[in-house]
Design brief:
495 residues; alpha/beta; FAD/NAD(P)-binding domain; 3 domains; seven-stranded mixed β-sheet; five-stranded parallel β-sheet; 17 helices; 36% helix
């Protein structure tokens, strides 16, 4: 049995702690915040409950597998499959209620957008399924390794299916002749914090997975996943310590041998697993001599986009029209130019962004009937006072929030008469809460054909130190983070 210290109690840290404890290791889980969950955040005020991170779960079997592997299902964690995955409003005013089941999608597309649109999307998803079949086992479910990538590269048919030299936007243009379908596809690049014009065609698997496995909501909010995993961890003997910020990962003879806390306390360990952002680990928690090549790769990668969110406490709105709504921008390319910047202009808040609205019809998240706890999110440039946007600039957040409320109304969702109060969550707030540089939601983006190879591996160059979570392999989002935990626990168990 090894002594394991896990740094960070986001979903990745919680999941890997649970798996390692079930393997028989002695695990201490450290979290700098007062609550566990990381980016799976929850805000409670006046009886309103907001998920401030993910608002839906896909591939729920991965969560079921984690619980089954470590003691059995949690009867208090109740999942609900959404009949309508999302309601979309396109720039021309067209509406689309996207069904939550794959078999129902073609007919819905034909009815909303015109005959033949369902077949276009189906043809695209057939290609996406090919990519999924090729990449799932050797890449998403396995530790990343040079040997594995070489083996994959030798299968010419598989390489042709994945088309690593083609962008997601370009792949979509081959199948989707309706510009609204191409806009719909572009949205899925943002699931990895990326620009569809630069993200690889492999991200076609994102809409395939969402529609093949369904969109799921956790009754009471997705924050209950973190609560459930904490309870499971503690039942297995994990010592969970919130309010403990790690200052450094200590080493001896080139091997990780523990951590030092901000108060100077040192905790010895045989293994350290970091669920912190990979950039923070390599740049701040390790000495300069450790992980130099990994730091260099991170410097070549494009940070993922961030987000600006409104938490809206509403009265008198009644049941929401759909759990998830997306109100598309008139010019999606201008949005991505604003978020990532161009040669002519640096990153800047987008004047007319796409609006993502999550509003659960769940009495557990509101204080009374007719009230609404709405989470409104827009893509935003990361917090970068030196070379981009300073989200702490006085007045900026309030002015931008007012602009977004006006834009909601302009696109047919005027909640201003029902507004009880509004809170904002900026990229700077996200950086402070999660210690993620710039508030980049997914660490590095998938921009560029080589982006997947720049994402840090779970096994670091420092013996005894491992990474887990959205900024490491295989990537961000709840399903991939759960896979990351499974991969990392396997690596630790085999070490």
């Amino acid at each position: 049995m090894s002594r394991v210290v896990v740094v960070g109690a986001g979903v990745g840290g919680l999941a890997v702690a649970v798996r390692l404890a079930a393997q028989g290791h002695g695990v201490t889980l450290l979290e700098q915040a007062d609550e566990v969950g990381g980016k799976l955040g929850v805000r409670r005020r006046d009886g309103f409950v907001f998920d401030t991170g993910p608002s839906l779960l896909t591939m729920p079997h991965l969560l079921d597998e984690l619980l089954a592997d470590t003691g059995g299902p949690d009867p208090g964690l109740r999942l609900q499959r959404l009949d309508v995955a999302c309601h979309y409003r396109f720039a021309d005013g067209t509406g689309l209620a996207m069904p939550g089941r794959l078999d129902d999608v073609p007919a819905a597309l034909d009815a909303a957008l015109g005959p033949g649109r369902g077949e276009q999307w189906t043809a695209f998803l057939r290609r996406a399924e090919q990519i999924w079949d090729v990449t799932r086992g050797p890449f998403l479910e396995s530790p990343v390794s040079a040997a594995g990538l070489v083996r994959l590269s030798r299968r010419l048919g598989d390489v042709a299916a994945v088309a690593p030299w083609v962008s997601l936007r370009r792949l979509g243009e081959r199948y989707l002749h309706d510009p609204r379908l191409r806009t719909l596809l572009d949205r899925y690049a943002t699931y990895t914090g990326s620009d569809p014009r630069r993200a690889p065609a492999a991200l076609a698997t994102v809409p395939y997975v969402e529609q093949a496995f369904g969109s799921w909501y956790v009754e009471g909010g997705l924050g209950r996943i973190a609560t459930s995993l904490r309870e499971r961890a503690e039942s297995l003997g994990v010592r969970v310590r919130p309010g403990c910020r790690v200052q450094e990962v200590t080493t001896s003879g080139g091997r990780a041998d523990g951590v030092r806390l901000a108060d100077g306390t040192r905790l010895p360990a045989d293994v350290v697993v970091a669920n912190a952002d990979a950039a923070q680990v390599y740049r701040e928690l390790l000495p300069p001599s450790a992980g130099a090549r990994a730091r260099a790769r991170l410097q070549r990668a494009t940070p993922s986009l961030s987000g600006f969110a409104l938490l809206l406490a509403l009265d008198g709105v009644g049941p929401p029209a759909a759990h998830h709504r997306v109100l598309f921008a008139e010019d999606y390319d201008a949005e991505f130019d604003g978020v990532f910047g161009t040669r002519r202009r640096g990153p800047h808040p987008v004047g007319r962004p796409t609006l993502y609205v999550a509003a659960a019809d769940d009495p557990a998240v509101v204080p009374r009937p007719g009230a609404g706890a709405w989470f409104v999110l827009v893509n935003a440039p990361r917090h970068d006072p030196a070379g981009g946007v300073d989200w702490d600039e006085p007045g900026l957040a309030d002015a931008y929030a007012a602009r977004l409320l006006d834009l909601l109304a302009e696109r047919g969702v005027d909640v201003r008469p029902h507004l009880r109060w509004c809170e904002t969550v900026t990229p700077a707030d996200l950086e402070r809460r999660t210690l993620t540089p710039g508030g980049s939601i997914y660490g590095t983006s998938s921009n560029g054909a080589r982006a997947a190879f720049l994402r840090p591996a779970n096994r670091t160059p420092v013996p005894g130190l491992f990474l887990v979570g959205g900024s490491s392999h295989p990537g961000g989002g709840l399903p991939l983070v759960l896979l990351s935990a499974r991969i990392t626990a396997g690596l630790v168990g085999a070490a």
